[in-house]
Amino acid sequence: MSDEEGHPRRWAILVALCAALLVIVIDNTVLHVAVPAIGDAFDASTDQLQAVIDAYVVVFAGLLITAGVLSDRYGRRRALVAGLLVFGAASALAAAAPSVWWLIAMRALMGVGAALVMPATLAVLVVVFPEQERPRAFAVWSAVASVGMAAGPLLGGALVDMWSWAGVFLINIPVVAVALFGVVRLVPETRAPDRRGLDPFGTVLVTAGMTGLVWALIEAPAYGYTAPAVLGGAAVALMALIGFGVRQRRSAAPMVDLRLYRDRRFSGASFAVAVMTIATGSTLFVLSQYLQLVLGYSAFETGLAAVPLAAGVVAGSTVGGRAPARFGPRACIVAGFTVTAAGFVVLASLSEGSGYVAVSSGLALAGVGSGIAGPSATSTVLGAVPPERAGMGSALNDTHQQLGIALGVAGLGSLLATVYRGKLPDGLPDDAMSSLGATLSHARDHADGGALADAARSAFTDAQSVTMSVGVAAALVGAAVALFALPGRATRATAPDPESEEAGQPG
Question: How far is Cα 43 from Cα 356, in angstroms, rounded to an integer?
């Protein structure tokens, strides 16, 4: 197989990889609608339910870099198979959970499996697809991820209504089985040719650092940025990541080659995408409250809000997969981020009288922009990474996005809460100002509750507009970074030391 021709079964391989990706992405969103049923089943506290959700995300993000390095050393197909097996087994054990703490532990184990799967999918695509076809492959990959994101809440709601909360875990098993069959049957084994030794201490440092950082970002809005636990997690993360960086600079065979960040393609595209995910990561969380508590839509109707976003990504990906060959990746990223900014302009203009059409239009535009920009951004990032380090490069790409999402949830969530509290009428108790739901609950117990509920909905809508305006700014900053930092045409990555490293070959 040559890099110019690609693997003869590369499109079938893409289908198998997308099946593996689908189960990972669905699990990011499918659980949210099952949280009330889980709370009833285990009489779980709010903190415990939050831990059920966060355990997966924190472990997943914390292990991405380590998993990517392991896949380069031991084989990407092997990492895929191991990750799917762990994910499937943990899903089955989660469905049979006897307690909420068991469920939390299994969610963390599912995060381990997801971390092994996610970077390996992109790494295999880099190897089996020739450079000119990669944007199209990445477009399909992104579209599948978006469909999975949209399908999660709808699928979860149907399973909980028809069966029980356990259904959101048991549904993973047949999908994992299909993905395993496709991976074993179709995906060739690839790995780094030099098989450099592992750095156990560096692995501990980067895992502890990433886990602590993501945990602190996720928990800060709930506990406060000055809470001892949050500050402690941030301090551990900072010390661990600084130690990891120093260790990598001194290593002759580093886990992560920090020289990649000197490449404008890698650093520019990574920063642009991270900025974008800051805005997009919390969009559906904010809009779900608006749709249900301001406009009065049901949970199922709210779940449908993700459909226009996913449809927009699919539509945009048909352009984003082909346009780079003609216009170059920089033009596609700038154009895509500009369209996404237009979507956030629509979302920032929503009012208490807006309807579902306005919400859908904004989300569809944001999705189209992401679909146009995503394949070029991914191709640019991974194009700066030597093919034999594809696992590490894919893991870094995923990590930048996960950090952007976590930072968006923390930062924009806090901004939303701060603006909301500032616009509420004076004299309300603190617990009634914590969220729109809490204010509406407080209003139902008072004689003038109707006026208070109207004021709360107005305050939330104003706060949402401020938050979405930040999304506009983030999208435009990402477009500006791409315009000024990236070259007009992609250039191929070369290994830092060509005498000691060769391109990865199928095993």
Answer: 35
Spatial distance between the Cα atoms of 310 and 241, rounded to a whole number of angstroms: 35
Note the pLDDT tens digit of each residue in 26-40.
Answer: 877 777 677 778 888
Strands (DSSP E) contained in 276-381 are none
Task: Residue 141: give the domain boundaries.
Answer: 1-198
- One domain for residues 356 and 480: yes
Question: Hey, CA dihedral for 151, 403, 79, 507, is it positive or negative?
Answer: positive
Nearest to 464 by CA among 345, 299, 307, 290: 290
Contact status, residue 77 vs residue 152, Cβ threshold 8 Å: no
Average pLDDT per consecutive 10 residues, the chain (507 residues; last block may be shorter): 71 92 81 76 77 84 87 91 96 93 93 92 89 87 81 74 83 92 92 72 88 82 81 91 90 82 89 84 78 81 80 89 88 94 95 87 93 89 83 85 79 84 85 81 79 90 93 93 80 45 38
Per-residue model confidence (pLDDT) at position 399: 85
* Overall number of domains in the chain: 2
Q: Is residue 87 part of a domain?
A: yes
Buried b (16+ CB within 10 A) or exposed e, 379-389: bbbbbbbbbbb
Tokens (6 digits) for 71 = 């896949």
- 265 and 125 in one domain? no
**243/256 Cα distance (integer angstroms):** 13
Give the C-alpha separation, 428 to 415, whole Å: 19
CATH of the domain at 462: 1.20.1250.20
Digit-coded pLDDT (tens) for 88-107: 999 999 999 999 999 999 99
Handedness of CA 305, 401, 216, 83 (dihedral sign): positive
Q: Rounded to an integer, what distance in angstroms lies between the CA atom of residue 93 and that of residue 105?
A: 10
In the chain, what is the greatest distance between 2 CA atoms, to the nearest angstrom?
A: 79
Domain boundary among the residues 174, 198, 222 is at 198
Q: Closest Cα to residue 424, out of 413, 435, 415, 414?
A: 435
Nearest to 419 by CA among 358, 482, 464, 363: 464
Q: What is the pLDDT of residue 502?
A: 37
174 shares its domain with 269? no
CB 443 within 8 A of CB 293: no
Residues 27 and 123 in one domain: yes
Q: What is the pLDDT of residue 507?
A: 38
Q: Contact at 8 Å (CB) between 330 and 483?
A: yes
Measured CA distances, 357 to 280, 281, 306, 353, 388 (Å):
19, 22, 13, 11, 47
Coil/strand/helix, residue 506: strand
Type of residue numbered 168 = V
